[in-house]
Specification:
Largest sheet: 9 strands, mixed
Structural class: mainly beta
Helix content: 10-25%
CATH superfamily of the largest domain: Class I glutamine amidotransferase (GATase) domain
Distance between the termini: 21 Å
Strand order of the largest sheet: 14-13-15-16-23-22-21-18-19
Radius of gyration: 38 Å
CATH architecture of the largest domain: 3-Layer(aba) Sandwich
Strand content: 35-45%
Number of domains: 3
Number of strands: 38
Shape: rod-shaped
Oligomer: single chain
């Protein structure tokens, strides 16, 4: 091995190590092409083509890599799943919704209100249909399917068929005093399975109507409606026997603190401030959420509750007597049927996010007139067809960021209206993945074609694999044909025709979308 002295003076800020054994390599902190003059008996100067990727980069092509902060790394990508046009939305499924081309978005379809009337066995299952026929301005939009509370708890219709909740818009619990629960058993309560069905229905965003003596308790709790009362988070009503003995009333008054413009009080009928009812009484109901619409006119106490609503659940204390209601009692009930819930669900196709790493950001554009709501839920899985291993639906906010729990994603949008004359308008949904590194990429240098050269010498490189891989190739500068594949640091290039122009190429790869290798510098030495 020969060690040569550098005959020219150099800047003291630069440090060099020059070693030669028919090939030469060195390390330096210089950002310029350096030239060294060897002793005259060697007959040539050693020069280099070098790129530190700082400023004046000598790069011909970048493919899925980026130069930043003095190094080359894999570039990042993100997936944006956009549902905006009718064609986009038509890839999914509409339930009681449609795409309105005039409005440019998804709306609630004109109503056909399907009611599952859950009644105590042996009582008047035809009465609700009769009320609708007499008082509804357009009774033909209502479909009423009666089922006993016992069959509902078994998820069956009265004919024995399996119950499909998706076929209904409203659950209506009534009719009869104490909901037909006579001593000594008091059995006409929801079961645990029935309570679960109500919760599933509520989670779909649909409407629940509870009438006289369904929600409430006696003293000392002789009315065994424990599962009905477990639904206080849905109904906004709990029970409190300390409120005193129940008392009856036949005249109700509207809550003067509530806007008379509320659609529950105006559509389709403008409800008067006071109206008569057949017969009713309080049953220790205590409102913990929602709007109180009416209560006893004689006591003027809201604890003598008659009518309350909390989002898509309404309590209406008609049904103490199994008779047709009085006029305004019947018309108020029609308002309840119209305005407890109108809505639908849009379910997207399944999207492939191409990675399980990182998370997603959700955004949606939706117009919400007064007394309407819209919400978005997403779920993740690792199969193209959703199965039991997918996550549960989870509500997300516009602009919110959420961790991914699978390669595939699906969303659904729930639109609700508590005002039949208005509908939300869903115009756009976007789901954007976090930035991830590409799995592979390449960088190619400009052509290395010295004006004067006697021989090619060697190759040097600085890099950090960071769990990935970088492979280097030496290319024919004119044809891009690979001359040497998998070029190594310090490799001898003296056997290459000195008149052949060269290019350097680096091939990056990473099996982890959260990591990237990086290239800090590369250079080729040659002698003039």
């Amino acid at each position: 091995m020969k060690t040569f002295q550098v005959s020219e003076e150099t800047d003291q800020k630069e440090t060099f190590r020059l070693v030669c054994e028919r090939r030469t390599w060195f390390d330096c902190r210089s950002q310029v092409i350096l030239s060294f003059r060897l002793k005259p008996n060697e007959g040539y100067e050693i020069q280099s083509f070098r790129d530190d990727f700082d400023n004046d980069n000598k790069v011909e092509n970048l493919d899925r890599v980026v130069i930043k902060d003095g190094r080359v790394s894999l570039s990042t990508w993100r997936e944006t799943l956009e549902t905006k046009t009718k064609s986009d939305f038509d890839q999914g499924d509409y339930l009681d919704l449609f795409y309105d081309q005039n409005s440019g978005g998804v709306k609630i379809r004109n109503p056909k209100i399907a009611i599952l009337h859950i009644y105590p066995g042996g009582h008047n299952k035809a009465l609700l249909r009769q009320i609708i026929n007499q008082y509804a301005p357009n009774p033909e939009i209502f479909e009423v399917v009666p089922v006993t509370i016992g069959n509902f708890n078994r998820a069956r219709l009265d004919g024995g068929q399996a119950l499909n909740l998706d076929q209904f818009d409203l659950l209506y619990f009534g009719i009869a005093d104490v909901y037909g629960s006579n001593p000594p058993h008091w059995i006409n309560d929801l079961s645990a399975a029935g309570e679960s069905l109500v919760r599933q229905f509520h989670h779909r965003g649909k409407g629940i109507i509870s009438t006289h003596d369904t929600l409430g308790a006696g003293s000392p709790c002789w009315l065994k409606h424990n599962h009905f009362n477990n639904l206080s988070d849905i109904t906004g009503i709990t029970t409190d026997t300390s409120l005193g003995h129940w008392r009856g009333f036949r005249e109700v008054m509207l809550n003067p603190n509530l806007s008379v413009a509320h659609p529950m009080l105006t559509y389709p009928y403008q409800i008067p401030n006071n109206f008569s009812v057949l017969s009713t009484h309080r049953l220790y109901q205590k409102v913990i959420a929602g709007d109180i619409f009416a209560y006893s006119a004689s006591s003027q106490s809201q604890s003598d509750l008659y009518w309350q609503s909390f989002k898509n659940s309404t309590f209406f204390s008609y049904g103490n007597l199994e008779e047709m209601p009085l006029e305004w009692e019947g018309k108020a009930l029609i308002n309840v049927l119209y305005n407890t819930y109108q809505g639908g669900i849009y379910t997207s196709e399944v999207f492939d996010l191409k990675s399980e790493k990182k998370g997603v950001t959700t955004s949606f554009d939706i117009d919400l007139p007064p007394l309407t709501e819209g919400e978005l839920e997403i779920r993740f899985g690792n199969t193209l067809i959703p199965d039991s291993n997918w996550t549960d639906w989870a509500k997300v906010d516009s602009g919110g960021h959420y961790s991914k729990k699978g390669r595939f994603v699906q969303y659904h949008a729930k639109l609700k209206s508590f005002n039949l004359a208005q509908s939300p308008l869903l115009k756009e949904i976007k789901i954007t993945t976090d930035s991830l590194y590409h799995s592979e990429g390449t960088i190619t240098s400009i052509m290395i074609r010295p004006g004067k050269i006697s021989k090619w010498l060697s190759f040097d490189v600085g890099y950090n694999l960071n769990g990935g891989e970088i492979r280097f190739d030496l290319l024919n500068g004119e044809t891009d044909e690979v001359i040497i594949a998998d070029l190594r640091k310090g490799q001898d290039l003296s056997g290459i025709d000195p008149h052949l122009p060269l290019k350097l190429q680096a091939r990056f790869s990473s099996g982890d979308s959260l990591k990237t290798p990086w290239l800090e510098s590369w250079q080729v030495f040659y002698g003039e």
